[in-house]
Amino acid sequence: MRKMVLEQPGRPLVAETCDAPEPGPGELRLRVLACGVCRTDLHIVDGELAVRRPRVCPGHEVVGTVEAIGPGVTGVALGERRGAPWLGGTCGTCRYCRAGRENLCEAAEFTGWTRDGGYASAIMARAAFTFPLPAGLSDVEAAPLMCAGLIGFRAWRMAGDPARVRRLGLYGFGAAAHLLAQLAIHQGQAVHAFTRPGDMAAQGLARDLGCAWAGGSDERPSEPLDAAIIFAPVGELVPAALAAVDKGGVVVCGGIHMSDIPSFPYALLWEERRLVSVANLTREDAADYLPLAAAAGVRPHVSCYPLSEANTALADLRRGAFAGAAVLTP
Questions:
Q1: Following DSSP, what letter does each residue of 44-91 receive, concatenated?
Q2: Which domains does the chain have, with CATH numbers?
Q3: Which of 76, 77, 80, 143 is close enough to 34 for a disulfide, judged by CB 3.0 to 4.6 Å?
Q4: pLDDT tens across the length of the chain (330 residues)
Q5: Is the whole-model pTM more than 0.85?
């Protein structure tokens, strides 16, 4: 099998060839068909997230077919197409798991961070943390939904009931935001898209998808927002988003990493505004999200790269060279 390995944070990934391992108890080996390139991968590669596994293979938006089944796995067939997301395993016994909050598990495993991920021609995954995918999505279309779609969905639910949140702001209009915008618009929300100042490509994509407004993150929306979700890892956006939401509004920080949040006057938080974060995802999120996304006709805007050009894809993501999502294809 071929894979791209992070030998040291801050350095390019290195191509390697090795034998494909056999799955252990409860595991599957998936032949990778597509793997999305997520900003979390960039945080790992750039060293913004601490190393959790030496020489890790990144990638956690994985679409593959089952090519080997380990002992004890039931309900999965060879050749079946399945997705492997960021959450790669939990203990099932800690207080968070027992309370149905497995995204906060004290011994969680993460695909592409604590387990080798999908920047490879094959991946080992715990069977219970993979799931079948809708037939209407191609491999490349399905890959970004495994994290960008799922984490956007979790953040969206934390932002409040769509019947109450009529004006939704999305800060950082990349992979997660452009997928969530389609679902939110389908649910009748007016979406305001905030991009890097001057990013006309992202603003054009937002308008093409039906957003009510698109502009730079240094601009104020034309009317107060009911809620805002920040996907860009930029702490300076927190005071801006709080200033943009109306009384009683909520600001959700949707990333795993963010630069420091600057101090801001209490008046921005007053009047029952709330600032919350979202962490990881659950398998229940996937079960709820995928049918909704299919019904809403959610489709990612994708830039494709061969696996050998993973470093190019990461560099393009770092500098904002494409609108939408990037996907590697072995």
A1: HHTTSS--SSTTB----EEEEEEEEE-TT--S--TT-EEEE-SEEE--
A2: 2-147+281-329 (3.90.180.10), 149-277 (3.40.50.720)
A3: 143
A4: 999 999 999 999 999 999 999 999 999 999 999 999 999 999 999 999 999 999 999 999 999 999 999 999 999 999 999 999 999 999 999 999 999 999 999 999 999 999 999 999 999 999 999 999 988 899 999 999 999 999 999 999 999 999 999 999 999 999 999 999 999 999 999 999 999 999 999 999 999 999 999 999 999 998 999 999 999 999 999 999 999 999 999 999 999 999 999 999 999 999 999 999 999 999 999 999 999 999 999 999 999 999 999 999 999 999 999 999 999 999
A5: yes
